[in-house]
Amino acid sequence: MSTARLTINLDALVTNWRNLNTKTNCETAAVVKANGYGLDSGRVATALAKAGARNFFVAIAEEGVALRRALGPGPGISVFSGHMEGDAKLLRDFQLTPMLNSLDQMLRHFEALPGHPFGVQLDSGMNRLGMEPGEWAAVRDIALGQNPVLLMSHLACADEPDHPMNPQQLKAFQEMTDGIEVPRSLSATGGMLLGRDYHFDLCRPGIGLYGGRPFGDALPVVQLDLPVIQIRDLMPGETVGYGNTWTAPRQCRIATVAAGYADGLLRRMTDGDIKAYAGATPCPVVGRISMDLITIDVTDLSEDPAVLTLLNEQQTVDTLADAAGTIGYEILTSLGARYARTYQG
Ligand SMILES: *Cc1c(COP(=O)(O)O)cnc(C)c1O
């Protein structure tokens, strides 16, 4: 079989959640938007709920529906995009809590679903989502009269601990929410690592759970094993792959494995220094990554490999991201639908 295998370690995921949880004295929720950063929101959230997570966040109402079906009644599911036109039935039938982002959303929510739980998203400077200070000042008494369950905002630069934007947004969030008797949330993974001032009542980590930076102590959660389809010998001077970008400097053995950029293994990764692992032994990826195939120099192995590993403890989503000039989030959410997925734990 030439199906590449993605192994998702739910025990490592749970350990990451627990380790992040011990960094604060507040509640630790979990962000499982984009289908759990590509790893299956239902399985991810079910494992975290068993470990004690009580609140989950998704991007849009439809993701909340899928998550509610997987989790059943009980855990809180909140929707960052708030209450959009046409969402009322889903929010009600699947007990989803919208984080309202504007006066328009607020009016829509109060009219369509009076008494239905909601939170408020405030913009503390990122200029992406949520009510700005002026808008909030104008509507906050109305909002507070309807008993929001959470006031939240989001940090733009939390992965850079010394960035002046962090204290600036903290101050803006405090000015908008101090003295209000409603639970507050400011921090995702990055903010959790900035210290107590940033924790408030609830933190919302995403990437750290899945093994990515900026949570430096994160355990890797994904392993990616690619079956070798064919191995060939090259004479010095022969080339490999599209565009002849790699030339054999000596007699070589080249293995071809079954995955490519259609599986989320970004073509630009070869701008950096990427390996494929035969057990613990790194072998250089050579030539261009094509849609379904990658070529690897296995000359120095004593035995021909049946499988080569692209994601493991040594080479994480962040390593691949650095090579491709992107972030671990994008590597995770790009991992394709063609993999055979195995869940451990
Ligand atoms: C994605 C997201 C998070 C989680 O962020 P991580 O950096 O993955 O921890 C938290 N809050 C909001 C509003 C988000 O969009």
From TrEMBL:
Its cofactor is pyridoxal 5'-phosphate. InterPro entries: Ala_racemase (IPR000821), Ala_racemase/Decarboxylase_C (IPR009006), Ala_racemase_C (IPR011079), Ala_racemase_N (IPR001608), Ala_racemase_pyridoxalP-BS (IPR020622), PLP-binding_barrel (IPR029066). It catalyses: L-alanine = D-alanine. Keywords: Isomerase, Pyridoxal phosphate. The modification N6-(pyridoxal phosphate)lysine is found at K33. Substrate binds at R128, M291. It is an enzyme of class 5 (isomerase). One of its GO terms (cellular component) is cytosol. Catalyzes the interconversion of L-alanine and D-alanine. May also act on other amino acids. This is Alanine racemase. The gene is alr.
